[in-house]
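U., I forgot to send this yesterday:
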Amino acid sequence: MPKLENILLVGASGRMGNCVQTLAQERGISIQKCTTRPCVQLPSPWPSDVSVVIDFSCDSVIGQMVAKLLERRPPFPPLVVGTTGLSNDTMESIKLYTQRAACLVASNFSLGIAILRACVRLAAAKLPDAFEAEIIEIHHRHKRDIPSGTAQSLLNDIRDAQMLSHGASGETTPESVKIHSLRMASVVGEHQVILAGPGEQLRLVHQAENRSVFAHGAFHAAQWICGQNPGLYHMEDVFGI
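Result:
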């Protein structure tokens, strides 16, 4: 597996950007910051040893950054995107970039969340359609997106698994699954999926105790993506699930 040596970081001044920088320093990995204000400016001259581009910015910034990367000559660096709430236009730009380099997009880089999603898909597919599903997500009061991108991904996992397994004829339709969002104090993140049937409940819960788990997951994903062929990947691909 290629060694992770130099990272081009987009969104370095944010909460996650700071976590990535701290972890990189601990691991002795070089960080090159990408200027984003007043507009995205890629490093010039381009560093020859960039292993991967990691993005924790916002939709408008990642859209600009991908457009500028597409203007470059080969080689094209792998891209790890942790920005949530991506617009259709930005996703189309990212998909275009995946024709030239490997790109991993995730709403949550927690390694535990990747496994949680696999468990949720399995449970939703295998439990009888009499089981009802609900999602509860709790985050700090300053989180902007409601529901969280991770909760929306879990919802899609349930819907896809139920439709594939039970079709549209089940007692509980995929459209009946709801997300309940709470914004409280300084909670880093909690996602709970409840599947309730006659006489029993299955609760699948993940709690993030600090933001460093997302930085560790991003590095894990970045290390993995460096050895992949061009294409669009997700955290589940890192685990082969």
